[in-house]
Hints:
Blueprint: H1 2-17, E1 26-31, E2 37-38, E3 41-49, E4 54-61, E5 64-68, E6 71-73, H2 76-81, E7 92-98, E8 105-115, E9 120-129, E10 143-144, E11 150-155, E12 158-166, E13 169-178, E14 183-191, E15 202-211, E16 214-226, E17 231-243, E18 253-262, E19 265-273, E20 280-288, E21 291-300, E22 303-313
Parallel strand pairs: 2-9
Antiparallel strand pairs: 1-3, 3-7, 4-5, 4-8, 6-7, 8-9, 10-12, 11-12, 12-13, 13-14, 15-16, 15-22, 16-17, 17-18, 18-19, 19-20, 20-21, 21-22
Amino acid sequence: MKKLLLPVIFVLFSSTSWAVQDDNIRISLEEPSSTSVSSGVSNLRGWAVAPNGISHIELYVNGTYVDTVPYGGLRADVGGAFPSYPDADNSGFSMAFGYSNLQLGKNHAAVIAYDDMGNHNISEATFQVEKFNSHWIGDPNQVDLRTVDNIRVLDNNRLIVEGVAVDGQNWDVELKWQTATQGFDIARIDPAVGASGPLAGTWRGESTVSANGESCLWNIVAKTTESSSTTGIFSVTSTLVNDSSPNVDCITSTSSFNYVINGSKVTTSLISSSAPLILFIPEGFLFSADTYVARGGAWSNGVWITGTTVLVKQ
């Protein structure tokens, strides 16, 4: 019986107790990256090598396990850089990923490479997502380029197509040359600005709410669709960045508000929200043409607490 048990005991210790994070396992998440903007359905890719060989690659997005990533793609460049690692020439991993299913604004991706001994290493990135209203646009008739009223060149590798009709709304879409993909990718998606009011365009910033030594931190993206120079709709995405508050409700939400401008003061009324608790209220004051101060908030033990949010026009 002892001879039968010994191999089992050895296997258990090899795959659990001895499994550690190992810096000899090299892994790189190349796309998305910390400087990239992702939209629609696009690539998620990178490479990984290990002295004991790679077993598999796991993908986590915003802290949630997604799937294993197909591994074994040709990467002659990695093979040249790590000639002593087994199968380094075929060390690429890649998969198609639906970025439009993620929240607008900041998101986080992590890939974990496991070797044949169960040891692992990680590569991760925080990246920006731009999107239209719908997660998936299946009917090509929902896209109409005949509505385009202008194309502006911003610099040597960026341009904006203004007034593209997508899914029943007009948009200004920025395209940027990307060396990694060898093509023009979407870098920004903003509601088309028909009027020229002071709130026209996209506003970004961070919102912090603190109570009793605890805090919530959100990344805020607010985009306006104008009805006139003084009225319109705020579409707001509040993405939770940090939560140090077990007693405060810190959640991500999307919401929309009607707004009215009276001088420098902006008043709002809620249209809809994805969450019962509204985390950011775009009611506030225009301090300048590109600086807007509004309110953020959260519920703490049944009490609504607020903080100041400074948004900068993009």
